[in-house]
Amino acid sequence: MAEQLVDKFNRVVDYVRISVTDRCDFRCVYCMAEDMVFAPRSEILSLEEITLIAQAFVELGVSNIRLTGGEPLVRKGITQLVENIAALPGLKQLNMTSNGSQLPHLATPLKQAGLSRLNISLDSLKPDRFKQLTRTGDLQTVLDGIMQAKSAGFTDIKINCVVLKGRNDDEILDLIAFIRQHQLGISFIEEMPLGHIDEHDRALTFMSSADIRDIITQQYELESCDEHTGGPSRYWQFADGHTSRIGFISPHSHNFCGSCNRVRVTAQGRLLLCLGNEHSIDLKSVVRKYPGELEPVKQAIREAMDLKPERHHFELGEEVQILRFMNSTGG
Ligand code: SAM
Ligand code: SF4
User: Fold this and answer.
1) Could you tell me where the beta strands, DSSP code E, fall in the chain?
2) Under CATH, to which class is 10-329 assigned?
3) CA 267, CA 145: separation in Å to the nearest integer?
4) I need a labelling partner for 52 at 20 to 30 A (CA). Which of 98, 202, 241, 295 fits?
5) From ligand 1's centre to the CA of 2, what distance in Å?
6) Which of 261, 273, 264, 196 is nearest to 229 (CA)?
7) Ligand 1 proximity of 160 Cβ (cutoff 6 Å)
8) Which of 134, 157, 159, 189 to mutate to test the pocket of ligand 1 (most atoms within 8 A of CB)?
9) How far apart are CA 139 and CA 131, in angstroms?
10) 319 against 293, higher pLDDT
11) pLDDT tens digits, residue range 128-166?
12) 3-state SS class at 309
């Protein structure tokens, strides 16, 4: 029988999120400080090292990999990386989370390289506000990117939206109309306390999934779906039969740790066993000590499973416990 990764709590880990860069062309207010300091390039995994780590995971039974960042599409050689990972025997899904800014020119090459699915972040449909929330982003480019992804043949495209009270909560229904019009899905993500950002007080802008759902149900009747990904999303569908799905990712208000099936690899090669804890091991030192060798990476991953903690502890309004920023963690 093929090998599986199982942790101390009998959870099977078959899903890995790999951050391919900590850099980004946006500076979203909830994700990064304006003057972020990025890791030196020598500390970032090379494309070959990322491929080796991906292969090790797939040989250990991982069937689903998501590439993220930072912005994965600002990494040079990303299309080749997608092609190499997508070709690994045993991998069923290779997905990506992107801010969409490079999709106008990269959607078609990514589809051809074998990328299965795309999640695209979009927090506002108003150009000025989009610019304020991302600090540098251009809304029209991202909208063009979404349309290009559709024309390239991507299906099940999902929008990721972080709702901040007083900043974009008045656009929830507009975003719902947008996804219905374009046959997209959407996930609303509760903001998580990752990294301290001086000019942004998370406790003031926090909006729970329940608050967001209340706003949607003023206009649409929703029914809960059985669909489960082993992840933090709970899914709902429209009672009127529209095929778009709505997900809610609720690390604060709903504890999803019991069915957690995932681990993360940062751009610097740290294997994080839990988004909300610092438990990790350094895979980069293993791949650099044994370049090109699969067995030492596989053994390090097997041993790391014992470190996966039972649950996360996110509390609002307290000192930030997690010092990593989302861009290095890989959201
Ligand atoms: N740059 C890509 C993007 O924005 O889609 C991929 C990386 S980004 C870190 C992945 C997701 O994490 C995005 O949807 C973003 O909105 C979300 N995110 C970033 N910081 C967050 C935070 N503090 N709390 C919750 N979600 C966050
Ligand atoms: Fe960049 Fe994504 Fe973070 Fe925004 S959320 S700053 S697009 S990594």
Assistant:
1) 5-6, 12-13, 15-19, 64-68, 93-98, 117-121, 158-162, 185-189, 222-224, 233-238, 245-249, 262-265, 270-272, 280-282
2) alpha beta
3) 24
4) 98
5) 33
6) 261
7) yes
8) 189
9) 7
10) 293
11) 999 999 999 999 999 999 999 999 999 999 999 999 999
12) coil
Which ligand sits closest to the CA of 135?
2
Q: What length does the chain have?
A: 331
The answer to whether the CB of 191 is under 6 A from ligand 1 is: yes
Q: What is the DSSP letter of 322?
A: B
What are the Cα distances from residue 49, in Å, to 85, 268, 272, 285?
12, 11, 17, 11
Token readout for 184 is 């997209």
**Domain definitions of the chain by residue range:** 10-329
User: Which residue from 203, 191, 194 is spatially nearest to 277, judged by alpha carbons?
Assistant: 194
**Residue owning tokens 């045993």:** 90
Q: Whose CA is closest to 139, among 155, 122, 156?
A: 122
Please give the Cα distance from 206 to 208 (Å, whole number): 7
Convert the pLDDT of each residue in 24-65 to its tens digit.
999 999 999 888 899 999 999 999 999 999 999 999 999 999
Question: 38: number of CA atoms within 13 Å, CB side?
Answer: 16
**Rounded Cα gap, residues 47 and 288, in angstroms:** 13
Amino acid in position 57: F
Tokens of 168: 């974009």
**What residue has token string 């951050």?**
19
